[in-house]
Amino acid sequence: MNDRLAARLLQIQVLLLFVGTQMPGAWREAVEARLHSPWGLSSWAHFVLFVGMAAVAHARPLGWPWYRVLLAALLLALLTEGLQFFAIDRHPRWLDVGIDMAGAMAGLLLVAAVRVFRKSAR
């Protein structure tokens, strides 16, 4: 993956995060009802997006240091939760910030695990 593709992938993930954050609560609940999901898909979607964003930002070619990835993730988590004040039927929760940060940590661990696996395979 080259720099431009990695940057574009990161931008798409951030865009998806903001679109999902501003989705009215009734729309989100309708999607979850159609999928017959036993748990909230919104929290899982945030977790998966933060895993992806952290992994893309930390891995090569971008190669952000872990502390920069975590700081960016924290700022994004706080911003998206704060933006929920403006979304219809949505409310910010500290738990969601924790879910986002857990996703970012999982993304960092995923990149570290891949690096260890590649070294051991040589």
Structure, explained:
This protein has 122 residues and is mostly helical. It has one domain (3-121). Helix content is 77%, strand content 0%. The chain is built from 5 helices and no strands. Helix 3 runs antiparallel to helix 4 (66-83), helix 3 packs across helix 5 and helix 4 packs antiparallel against helix 5 (94-121). It is elongated and about 50 Å long.
The gist of it:
This protein is mainly alpha-helical and 122 residues long. It is 77% helix and 0% strand. α1 (3-21) packs antiparallel against α3 (41-58), α3 (41-58) packs antiparallel against α4 (66-83) and α4 packs antiparallel against α5.
Helix-strand layout with pairing:
Blueprint: H1 3-21, H2 25-35, H3 41-58, H4 66-83, H5 94-121
Helix pairs in contact: 1-3, 3-4, 3-5, 4-5
Provide the descriptors you would attach to this structure in a database record.
mainly alpha; 5 helices; 122 residues; elongated
Percentage beta strand: under 5%
What structural class results from the helix and strand content?
Answer: mainly alpha
The share of residues in helices is: over 70%
The poorly predicted ranges are none
- From the N-terminal CA to the C-terminal CA, the straight-line distance is 21 Å
Report the strand count. 0
SSE series: HHHHH
- Dominant shape: elongated
Number of helices: 5
Mean pLDDT: 91
Task: Kindly give the count of domains.
Answer: 1
The main pleated sheet reads as: none
Radius of gyration over alpha carbons?
16 Å
